[in-house]
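Sample pair:
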Amino acid sequence: MKILTAAQVYQADKFTIEKQQISSDALMERAAVQIFEWIHARLQGAPVLIHIFCGIGNNGGDGIALARHLAEHGYNIKVYVVNYSEKRSKDFLLNMERLKDRKIWPEFINAETTFPEIQPNDIIVDAIFGIGLNRCPDNWVCKLIEHLNASKAFTLSVDIPSGLPVDQPLWDEAKVVYANYVLSFQTPKLVFFLPQSGIYLENWEVLDIGLDAEFMMNVPTTFEFLQKHDMQGLYIPREKFSHKGTYGHAMIVGGSYGKIGAVHLSGKGCLRSGAGLVTLYVPECGYDALQSSFPEAMVITDEEEDYISKISFSLKPSSVGIGMGMGTDEETAKAFGNFLKSIEGPLVIDADGINILAKHPEMLKDMPKESILTPHPKELERLIGTWKNDFEKLEKATRFSSTYKCILVIKGAHTIVISGEKGFVNNTGNPGMATAGSGDVLTGIITGLLAQKYPSLHAAIFGVYLHGLSADIQVSRTGFEALIASDMIENVGNAFVELFRREEPNAKQES
């Protein structure tokens, strides 16, 4: 699903209006009807008080039109116009007249107004600001937003939480409506998925308001939100007449004294994702533990007991994942640098492999093209430098990916895979994944997919999706706190099964 910028949404509106030969008011009416039907399907006429806060632009027009539909179906509503400007949009004024024709008179709120009382059992519909917000709201409007948040009432935001800009960082003095649910028109907004802005909403859902399909198909976007059907299209099915050699020989390189478990987790994730063979390259101290606990894997050891001093082997692996638990001491870093110069084909680089690259940026030029780097936030910061906000982080990550022809997996609540100028937002995973070894498992899964001849970008995207889905399957049994990395490994198979599980009739579309 494409993620549009504010400018592209306006283009989509204009294109739709012209091609379908409808008025902008008719498009607004579509949006209002969709919101009403969403609410009505859940409330079924329940006697709850609904407070509708409307701005004076098109987002406010959506709210005013919604108020009309709710009133016509007998809902108990109060309508407020947040009078933050003398300007009014044409469609806002048109819907105000329709509301007044039904003898519904909104209350106007300005800087001198006492804010209305809202009970925790009431419902708030937030239609104050939409995607056109381009400056910090006035101080009194920020105080109103604080008042709404303090009410503890269930809050439904129209298109985007008010006060949240779409395509730029949040202003320092701004306040944002905290939305229990956001009904986003046609596509989600990128800010829903970024750590600094995603905290202002709990859930979101896309409403189809009939924007032109041709425009949506052809418009180029920087970011896409990935869903199950996208992953089904990437999957490479197994052949009947195949053998373990068909699915590649993956190698996992890493470990040091006390950190051999990282290699174990990564190797198991690699095998579970479908690699035909897995060899682990570790210091001598890891040999006995791995041979006894992981019989499916082969083990090669470094000549040093406690750390990796050189990376040398005779086999030609189909893919290599490197860095987990490896350490960053001078001899290991030198071995890693020499390995980069000798290896062909893309790598999956994690943990200390990334830390070594950050300490020795001269090695980046030797990194094979299409390599996949899987940093957590601090590792990413070491690699690309500090950032002031999430937009600057994405800009720096994009520049890094383009410069070194690599793929960055920016791990987080919504992991974003960056490949050159494109970003792909993942939709699986949960807070239980904030646990030791989770990243090691991800590296193994991606390495296993690379071994099976998935292209680098597909391996990264698909691996991130499977990793999160395996955790989602397990968390229903363990809860967030008890989820551990080994659980994710054990559920990779279930994730593959879930990927092609037949949907029940009328099942809700994933969003």
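Residues 505-511 have pLDDT under 50 and may be disordered.
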